[in-house]
Amino acid sequence: MLDIALEREAEGDLLLGDIGQGLGVRPGVIDGAISISAVQWLCNADKSCNDPRKRLKCFFGSLYRCLARGSRAVLQMYPENGAQLEMISTAAMRSGFSGGLVVDYPHSTRAKKYFLCLLCGPPSANTPLPKAKGEDGGSGSDESEDDDEHETVDFLERQRPTKKRKSEKKVKGRAWVLKKKEQRRNHGFTNVPRDTKYTARKRKARF
After folding, report:
1. How far does CA 93 lie from the centroid of its chain?
2. What are phi and psi of 85, to 5 degrees?
3. What is the CA radius of gyration of the chain?
4. pLDDT digits (tens, 9 = 90+) for 181-202
5. Average pLDDT of 33-62?
């Protein structure tokens, strides 16, 4: 598929990689993500070294980091059973995503499609899940134009993740040092240095 994309000079960058090992993208630089029939393969352990839960955790963790806050990810998939579906959904929510599952044509065995609609950040009432097709049991082929108008996605303002401030280290004074030395002496340690006027004295920045 990548070779065909190169021949057709497709727009954008092409990358070959294993999503089970994470996405090598800088944090907060992606405005949206789409996946088509790929995530369910992470549930298969084709090698003895592959752990589906660890691979799903690695994928969703890296996806959450590279997405800008407020952006969306839509993952279309075909899970084999309910256990795989629960495993994928649980891994996504534990990584920090909010959202839910949308199933198109739930009453059909051939046309049924699963969409995991994720929001990068806390849940919001302004970003509801899209409406699934064929929920009323119909074929869904004769959809009105009014329904198409309502099936729009709001683009939120992109916000880069804020950097965490480094916590100031607490300075341990002379009383703390003397207390620790006394505790070691009480425990029977014989190599504890004796207390002097230089104990826990603050040193100059340079000699």
Report:
1. 8
2. -65, -45
3. 27
4. 888 888 888 888 888 888 888 7
5. 88
Asked if 104 and 111 touch (Cβ cutoff 8 Å), the reply is: yes
Residue 42 CB neighbours (<10 A): 25
Q: Edge to edge, what strands does the sheet with 113-120 contain?
A: 30-36, 67-77, 113-120, 97-104
Task: Supply the pTM of this predicted model.
Answer: 0.60
First to last CA, the chain: 65
User: HEC profile for the chain?
Assistant: CHHHHHHCCCCCCCCCCCHHHCCCCCCCCEEEEEEECCHHHHHCCCCCCCCHHHHHHHHHHHHHHHEEEEEEEEEEECCCCHHHHHHHHHHHHHCCEEEEEEEECCCCCCCCEEEEEEEECCCCCCCCCCCCCCCCCCCCCCCCHHHHHHCCCCCCCCECCCCCCCCCCCCCCHHHHHHHHHHHHHCCCCCCCCCCCCCCCCCCCCC
Burial pattern 169-196, b for ≥16 Cβ within 10 A else e, equals eeeeeeeeeeeebeeeeeeeeeeeeeee
Residue among 96, 103, 92, 99 nearest 72 (CA): 99
Q: Would you state the pLDDT for residue 57?
A: 92
CA dist 92 and 127 (Å) reads 18
The number of residues in the chain equals 207
